Amino acid sequence: MDVNEIAESVEQVSKIYAEAFNIERDASWFVLKLQEEVGELIQSYLMLTGKARTKGKTTEEIQAEFNAEVADVFCQLLLLARYNGVDLEKEVANKWLSRLKK
After folding, report:
1. What is the mean pLDDT of each run of 10 residues along the chain (102 residues)?
2. How far is CA 88 from CA 5, 12, 64, 73, 83, in A?
3. Based on the structure, what is the number of domains in the chain?
4. Domain containing residue 74: CATH number
5. pLDDT at residue 101 in the model
6. DSSP assignment, residue 96?
7. Which domain holds residue 48?
């Protein structure tokens, strides 16, 4: 599966979520939801690295939570890019992968 295929599947899930909870997915929602997910990722990272209380969770539970939060950030970023018409494959190639040719 390529990035665009993943983004399309994530879009379908996001629409289902929005309909179920009566959420308007506008420009602000996409960027603010990304910020929320990054915050949750940071919280789980702090727990994983011993810089925050573990709330009684095991190391395995914290690692699983961290992994899930990384996925949430990735998916929300895909949604933000898709909403704003950003071709991620093109932008990654231009910004990052072009440096491999130098």
Report:
1. 93 98 98 98 97 96 98 98 96 94 74
2. 12, 18, 27, 15, 12
3. 1
4. 1.10.287.1080
5. 81
6. T
7. 3-101
